[in-house]
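Question:
When you can, review this sequence-structure pair and walk me through the tokens.
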Amino acid sequence: MISVAQRETLAKWKAALRSGEYEQTRGALVTEKRGGTPVYCCLGVLCKIMGRPEDVRNAKFQFEEWRQDSGWLLGTPDYTWFESVTGLSAINPNAYAGHKGTALDRLVYANDASMLSFVEIADLIDTLEKEETSHVKS
């Protein structure tokens, strides 16, 4: 179940993605264009609005291992942090029947492989939020 605080985080994240304030990149949470202008992936925008450290430049979301105690490993946010702040599935690939990958997997794919815009990703987050609340987790 997504909490009130998590819904507020999702609303803030979607608004940031739709704002036009952030320029998009692929394959890293945040990196710099020539001239030092930061560019973000959708998860980098989440890190930014949640006040995560700025030392995530060129870092990738950690998929090989994660540390439950800190929420960060090698400067990258982990699965448990993502799930705790958004309420969207990140850890269990079988979060509910018929789901192909976690919400986190789908967002990474949307940003990096499908090359969806931030506005399209915000729309996807709307869908993921609805799916998360309409299915009973196993």
